[in-house]
Design a protein that fits this description.
It is a single chain. With 110 residues, the protein is mostly beta strands. The protein has a single domain (2-109), classed as Rieske [2Fe-2S] iron-sulphur domain (Rieske Iron-sulfur Protein, 3-layer Sandwich). Helix content is 0%, strand content 36%. It has strands at 2-6, 15-19, 25-31, 34-39, 64-65, 72-73, 80-82, 92-93, 95-98, 101-104. The strands form 3 sheets. A 4-stranded antiparallel beta sheet has the order 2-3-4-8, with no helix packed on it. A 3-stranded antiparallel beta sheet has the order 1-10-9, with no helix packed on it. A 3-stranded antiparallel beta sheet has the order 5-6-7, with no helix packed on it. It is globular, with a radius of gyration of 13 Å. It binds FE2/S2 (inorganic) cluster (FES). FE2/S2 (inorganic) cluster (FES) is lined by residues 42, 44-45, 47, 66, 68-69, 71, 83-84.
Length: 110
């Protein structure tokens, strides 16, 4: 498993960006549906979603927003519900939570 962040790291913004040593860019987000992780690459043009660090959510903290052209994504499953890539998904990343640590479940853990 690969450590992403602690649950307590999600408190200030509801979401956090994590760049791994191998360059993978990941969003960890907390919502009413639980904790999820996605690849930080908008399905529209493949760019990272945020302009400012850890600012991934809309004002209501209900949807993930792409700062480039305003696409909106459901935190539950990464589905784009509005914007130029409507109907596409942010790629989901399997995670596990152990003792308050959010970790990426690597293929070897399956
Ligand atoms: S790059 Fe995300 S909406 Fe265009």
């Amino acid at each position: 498993m690969t450590f992403l962040c602690r649950l307590s790291d999600l408190e200030p913004t509801g979401a956090r960006g994590v760049v791994l040593a191998d360059g993978r860019d990941i969003i960890v987000v907390r919502s009413d549906d639980g904790i999820r992780a996605f690849t930080n690459a908008c399905p529209h043009q493949g760019v990272p979603l945020e302009t400012f660090p850890d600012r991934f959510l809309d004002a209501d903290r209900k949807l993930i927003v792409c700062s480039a052209h305003g696409a909106r994504f459901r935190p539950a499953d990464g589905l784009c519900t509005a914007g130029p890539c409507r109907g596409k998904h942010l790629p989901g990343i399997p995670i596990v939570i152990v003792d308050g640590a959010i970790e990426m479940a690597d293929a070897a853990d399956a």
